[in-house]
Amino acid sequence: MSLLDFFPPDYRVKTPAMRSPEYVQMSTAAAITLGLVPGRIYRAGCTHCLNLLLTYPEGCRANCAYCGLARHREEARDYADRNFIRVDWPALRYREVIERVQAGGDRGRFERMCISMISHPDSNRDTLALLAQWVEALPHVPVSILSNPTTMERDDLVRLKQAGAEIFTVALDAVTPEIFERTRGKAVDSPHRWSKYWQSIEWAAEIFGPEKFGAHLICGMGETEREFLEAVQKIRDMGGHSHLFAFFPEQGSLMEDWPACGKAQWRRVQLARFVIDYAGGDFRCMAFDGAGQLTGFGVEESELAKIVESGTPFRTSGCPGKDDTEISACNRPYGDSPPTDILSFPFKLRLEDIDIVKQHLNGKNVKTFFE
């Protein structure tokens, strides 16, 4: 049974008719929060960011090795039925999405909306159309753009800013040019280019300004911790923030047999990223061994202990909510791990969660599951 089988008949549309801007896909967490499908989000209640994804019958034209939407999967499933970052993304008419958010109640919990672009000739135009409709109908809910730099020029960013987009992010994902090339460039017959992605980050820094842009980075695709955190620092030096994902193999992707990100590595990187982005730390003050593994965070042990005890570095990182720039509205429940073994916590950590994180930092491979 597909997730779409839970939708009322009026919401079911055959894949060939699903085309943005009339239709959008949404994360499973968003569908649950909107009341479109039954279910509950373990310990999170709801998602505070409405993650929407552009959709076209012909699909994404890129071929990223780790992505469930990649072009090479054309024969596997209809495009709109493919999973993306571990979960299904059901499609719905955009006007219905807006009406449900306007209705309020639990659906009024949304603190942000994010439009995720894909590699498609109409993506720029349709993103602008979705943004304009949202700003007119729900001006109190800020909008982030998760961009597709491959199809964009500087003027596209200017138009999005003028139309009301608050934050602009770039899904850089790979932190070195070699890994980028191997996973989403010419090596996999994909159109993305390292230089264009960094150019878009530079445009975003100029057009959207400090604290209003950032990049998605995936940890565990073959980079060293030193390489990863050097990218984090570069983005911070420009005035932006990094939004982290732990690599988790997407079934059916070219990297489905690549191992998931190691827990000790992930916790060190999460903690160091928080120190750089929010605690005044600096990559250049951190210590690494000969293999590029982090051995020192460059801050006093007492201060580091307080940061760990807060639990905040280990929560999902993303665009902020209304009240706290350090806490992401985009909690992406279980986008990079199952609820039985949590890597990015989509909720405030309890003492027992923090204890598990400490064990991960100490190299113990224990699971993060509590009733």
List keywords for this structure.
alpha/beta; 14% strand; TIM Barrel; two-stranded antiparallel sheet
Write a brief structural summary:
With 371 residues, the protein is α/β, with parallel strands linked by helices.
Describe the structure.
This protein has helices spanning 28-33, 94-102, 123-137, 154-163, 177-184, 194-207, 225-237, 263-278, 301-310, 351-361; strands at 23-26, 49-53, 83-84, 87-88, 91-93, 112-116, 143-147, 167-173, 213-219, 241-246, 287-288, 294-296. With 371 residues, it is an alpha/beta fold. The protein has an eight-stranded mixed β-sheet with strand order 5-1-2-6-7-8-9-10. It has a two-stranded antiparallel sheet with strand order 3-4. A two-stranded antiparallel sheet has the order 11-12. Helix 3 links the parallel strand 6 (112-116) and strand 7 (143-147). 48% of the residues are buried. Residues 9-14 and 79-84 have low confidence and may be disordered.
The fold-level CATH name is TIM Barrel
Q: Terminal Cα separation, in Å?
A: 27 Å
Cα radius of gyration in angstroms: 20 Å
> Given the structure, what is the number of helices?
10
- The CATH class, by name, is Alpha Beta
* Average pLDDT for all residues: 90
- Describe the main β-sheet briefly: 8 strands, mixed
* DSSP helix fraction: 25-40%
Q: Any idea what the CATH architecture is?
A: Alpha-Beta Barrel
How are strands sequenced across the largest beta sheet?
A: 5-1-2-6-7-8-9-10
- Quaternary state of this entry equals single chain
Q: How many domain units?
A: 1
Model regions low in confidence, pLDDT < 50 over at least 5 residues: 9-14, 79-84
Tell the overall outline: globular
The beta-strand count equals 12
Helix and strand content put the structural class at alpha/beta
